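Residues pack. One example:


***
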Amino acid sequence: MYLKPTLFLIFLFSSSYASAQQITASPEIREIKSFGHWGTDDYEGNYRIVIINKGFEHVSRNVYIEWISSDNETYKTVKSILVSEVSGFYSVRIKKVDSNKAVLYLVDSHSFEKSEVEIEPTELGKYKANSISSCGF
């Protein structure tokens, strides 16, 4: 008598739990790191650096800064821009982040010269990129 409703409830909650646990990320994503805090009159949230693999035989990386809002437990990408100064390199990785900037470690696609660049978001959709070292290994 109580078996059917009980089985239905078990199925209902177990299937919603399983679907809530699944996310799909693009296979091209190489690395993601959230950092800092930003705000405008309309939104507030965190920054995110996203590094994407690009190409097949001649692999390089594209780097994006994203402004992610986190209002009322919903997350939304408010702005995403390509960081042209560091995109197209053979290798890019996130070395470190702090409250308002990210330091990226770069290897040039052709010369294999190594360097570090500091990326600092300034306002919505804008950033500063500063070379902080040339490693010259």
User: Anything to note?
Assistant: The first helix runs from residue 3 to 20.
